[in-house]
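Anyone up for a design puzzle?
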């Protein structure tokens, strides 16, 4: 249904999306790339839920991430790099 709305000129925004921090990191990154690629092709906007916390790029507490210290926070550099591509 969203594609038909977009084709009619209605803006589409995918809000509050992300993946639970117990999902394997590489699975999350691959899934995110797939979603972001499709949304970019469709011209849809998006917003990550959340910036800091279990779904975000800061302080997510994922056990399988090599974090980078960023002003006292634990930064998921791989996820940030992926998001910046889009």
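Challenge accepted. My sequence:
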């Amino acid at each position: 249904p969203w594609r038909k709305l977009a084709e009619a000129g209605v803006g589409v925004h995918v809000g509050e999306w992300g993946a639970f921090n117990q999902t394997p990191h590489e699975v999350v990154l691959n899934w995110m790339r797939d979603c972001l690629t499709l949304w970019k092709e469709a011209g849809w906007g998006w917003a990550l839920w959340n910036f800091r916390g279990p779904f975000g790029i800061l302080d997510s507490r994922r056990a399988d991430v090599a974090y980078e210290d960023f002003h006292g926070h634990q930064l998921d550099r791989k996820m940030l790099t992926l998001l910046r591509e889009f």
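A detail worth pointing out: Residues 78 and 84 are 10 Å apart (CA to CA).
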